[in-house]
Amino acid sequence: MHKLVVLYPEPADPDHFRDYYVNTHLPLVARMPGLLAYRYSFEVAATQGQTPYFAVFEADFADVAAMTASRESPQGREVGADVANYATGGAVVIHYPVQNGTL
């Protein structure tokens, strides 16, 4: 599995961010080809001190090729272009292959 994570710093208008994100942006995300699952939260906390992030998003893809193809698809490009409509604080995007741990 390959994971895409987006970390959102505090926006200028948190209420607009929440409303737009849930009602407009996430429905666009759900149309991305190859997307296996996604999760998000507006309750981001730091283990120590103040968190630098307002919201977090994570998406699962089968592998890096599936993620890349999804992001380069028309739906993926639409999602990328839409970020400026709500994330006035910017966005940090990272991705990585998931390694399973053992207990």
TrEMBL record:
Provide a Gene Ontology MF annotation, just one: oxidoreductase activity
Domain of life per record: Bacteria
EthD domain residues are 11-88
Q: Which InterPro entries match?
A: Dimeric_a/b-barrel, EthD_dom
Against SUPFAM superfamilies, the record matches this protein to: Dimeric alpha+beta barrel
- List the Pfam families: EthD
Q: Which NCBIfam families match?
A: EthD family reductase
Q: What is this protein called?
A: EthD domain-containing protein
Originating organism: Nocardia macrotermitis
